[in-house]
Hints:
Pfam families: ADH_N, ADH_zinc_N. Helix content is 21%, strand content 29%. With 307 residues, the chain is α/β, with parallel strands linked by helices. NADP nicotinamide-adenine-dinucleotide phosphate (NAP) is lined by residues 41-43, 119-120, 123, 143, 145-149, 167-168, 172, 201-202, 223-227, 248-250, 290, 293, 295.
Amino acid sequence: MSTRALIVDPSAPDGIGLGEVADPVAGPGQVLIDVLHASLNYADLNNARNGRVPAGAPLGLDAAGVVVQGAAEGSGPAAGTRVVLFADGAFAERVAVDVSAVAEVPDGVGLAEAAALPTAGLAALRSLRTAAVAPGKRVLVTGASGGVGRYAVQLAARAGAHVIASVGSPARGEGLADAGADEVVVGLDDVKEPVDIVVETVGGPHLVTAWALLAPGGSLQSVGWASGEPAVFPPYATVGPPKTLVSYVNEFAAAADLAELVRLVADGALVPEIGWRGSWERFAEAADALRGRRVTGKAVFDLESHA
Ligand SMILES: NC(=O)c1ccc[n+]([C@@H]2O[C@H](COP(=O)([O-])OP(=O)(O)OC[C@H]3O[C@@H](n4cnc5c(N)ncnc54)[C@H](OP(=O)(O)O)[C@@H]3O)[C@@H](O)[C@H]2O)c1
């Protein structure tokens, strides 16, 4: 038996194609999940080419669906539970996932919305937590139009921070004031006052400028590098009163934080914005839109097989 999946296919455009993988078997501490929706991340596009996921293996990190078999020892969600997951190989009709990477989705939260949460939501939630976001802090979010950015704006605003959302054009900034941004700026030239925290997702010159804007004692969370451009710091840019550049990566044991994210959505305190949605058979279109900076928030796939 086999399961359909979006796999690494070196012969395909983007290195991604629909294919078949062996049916997953749940190991100790794992649940089997039928995936109904999944969301696309830059990491998936990179993983199709960088060797992290081998040829023929399924891509993907973010998905939501229904448990079809609970963990053998009874831990984690039981069969029939609606769940969100953050795990390698998420782009498959059926996946075996550690219970530590799964959270139940409350009634009232759609599975498509839940699938839009993991990678980007975890990065926003955890980077702001590490930076000790608090009322009155000035928080700069770069790439605020994107997946991580739109969550970071909402979560920082909810924490009582003064939020400055930086985007590439006025059109890309639409909706961010409603999402909680106190200021929406195009680029960084109009940010005149120092900031305490940066959630930095663009890299390159944005990283250099954001570092210069960071106040003494501040924390720059280097979450991503969507621009792919090099960062060239002028001499002595890193010399002065102490402030911190913190590298960030999502760790997989995410159950508690996934549960927090879906609870925030259930409470109406966090809104997953889905800027592209369609069948996973249209993955090339979604990848093109993500690369072309045409996705507002997240791109979400529907897997018709279990619908
Ligand atoms: N470390 C981790 O664990 C982790 C977790 C999640 C994401 N990430 C990384 O964080 C970055 C952002 O992820 P995301 O999901 O928020 O991506 P996204 O939805 O595509 O958002 C990225 C934003 O960056 C802005 N941008 C500015 N210059 C760009 C350029 N030259 N090319 C492309 N985008 C540019 C775009 O905003 P404008 O169009 O408004 O300019 C875009 O909306 C990616 O590098 C991703 O790999 C890392």
